[in-house]
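Example (one chain per record):
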Amino acid sequence: MQMNLREQLEELLPKLLPTSPTEAIKGTELIRLVRQKLGEGYSDASLRHHFSLIAAEPESKIAKVERGQGYYRRTHSNTSGQTRGILPIFLGENNSGTNNTRAKALAIAVRYYDTSGHGVFVFSNSEEGNSWLQPDLAIVEWPEGDWDGKSLIFDKEALKRRQMLGNAQIKVRSACLSYSRDLEEVRKDFFRTLATSSWAQTSELILVGELPDELICHELRDLAAKYGVSIKCLDIPGPCLNKLPNAEEIFKAEDQDCINILSELSPIHLAVGQRKNNILSTEELMTGEVQALFNWLSTCLEKGCVEEYEFRVSCY
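Predicted structure:
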């Protein structure tokens, strides 16, 4: 019986990785080494996600450098005292309260969308939320399909109809997060959403936490009407937000458990965005993590399906 990707990596990675964290191999180089053995059948995003997933398991033979970049082979001598999460982006327990709040808000946004059947690509800068070149998330609306186990198999005829009608086979939304209730900070988050979305069909500002006051809501609606940005508030009372599990637990929770955890959320649409008709050059798309995003989507289309592990992908 042919091994799946995870089984192949669990067998291969210990042979490729050093035992010292100081000699850890970064993700890009590790992908190159893996491809020499496994070929070109898997996207960069899928491989990166598997690296993070395997490294997060307590009994795994590989580990990720704590608060750094690169992977190494785990031994008894180099694991004492370590705490790890499934992705570093959702860890924040030893950081400031601000970082903890952002990590939890980000995990809430990711799980809100992926438990509703969307694909979610997490950009590496989303941990800080200060990039004016890349958004925090890309939210993917998959084409029609049927579930086979835990994989979504695309409907080939539906895809053909989309092509004939000139519709996108996959819809991609660029999204930035905001959890501040300060008008100046929220305005900054709005314009960062706008600035980082040139490659996407639509853009969205996601507010996590209690619905802002009427002054901020009015300001955001005016900006959205002018610039065509969608705005959604994942409204949850402050005491309920504080009682939620930490970011790592939210991210790792099984779908039904996560739906229960986030049951206090009340999505409120403050503004509906407009689809953009801008045509981008190949060079503008094929750079950095945006390239990894489109490689992932292209691979899914080529395979005709999206597997369970690909609903949440990080290029961290």
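Caption: The two ends are 32 Å apart (CA to CA).
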